[in-house]
Amino acid sequence: MRHLERLEAALTAWTDEDRAPTAETLAYSAGVPARICEVLLSDLEEVGSVERDQDGGVAIVVPPETFKTGVRDLVTKLKTFRYEGERRLRLIATMPNRRNAAASSSGGISGRSIHRAAGRATAVAPTVL
């Protein structure tokens, strides 16, 4: 999230000087890794806040307040996505291992053996009417 906020500040400063930096120059001036800058710029392009010109220059194409609001919305979405991802990982980490649970409750028989035995036990000969 800090990367996006730094990118916003740097791009706003470039725009105030009526200049359109390349993604590499913007990354350098914002102190953001180039790959992260490219990803964030892609997100900003998707929402229509920035565009690249023929020379690769990045420019804000919406009013300054709209740009700042768009960046804040993107920060919120990224934080929500991150939180939900962490929550899912915690949920998965607390789930019992079903195969180990089946093996221990059956006296050491593996889950695969249980399924095979159950398949044989439930097989019924067809009935002719």
Overview of the molecule:
With about 130 residues, the chain is mostly helical. The chain has a single domain (about 1-95), classed as Arc Repressor Mutant, subunit A. The protein has six helices and two strands, in the order αααββααα. The protein has helices at about 1-15, 25-30, 35-45, 65-95, 100-105, 110-120, and strands at about 50, 60. Strands 1-2 form a two-stranded antiparallel sheet. α2 crosses α3. Residues about 100-105 and about 110-125 have low confidence and may be disordered.
What attributes does this structure have?
mainly alpha; 6 helices; elongated; disordered C terminus
Count the DSSP helices: 6
| Fraction in beta strands | under 5%
Mean pLDDT: 77
What is the strand arrangement across the widest sheet? Answer: 1-2
Question: What's the gyration radius in Å?
Answer: 28 Å
> Based on DSSP secondary structure assignment, what is the total number of beta strands?
2
* CATH fold description: Arc Repressor Mutant, subunit A
The topology string of helices and strands comes to HHHEEHHH
CATH 2nd-level architecture: Orthogonal Bundle
Principal-axis shape equals: elongated
Helical/strand content category: mainly alpha
Within CATH, the superfamily carries the name Winged helix-like DNA-binding domain superfamily/Winged helix DNA-binding domain
Give a brief rundown of this model:
The chain has 129 residues and is mainly alpha-helical. It has helices at residues 2-16, 23-30, 34-46, 64-94, 98-105, 111-122, and strands at residues 50-52, 58-60.
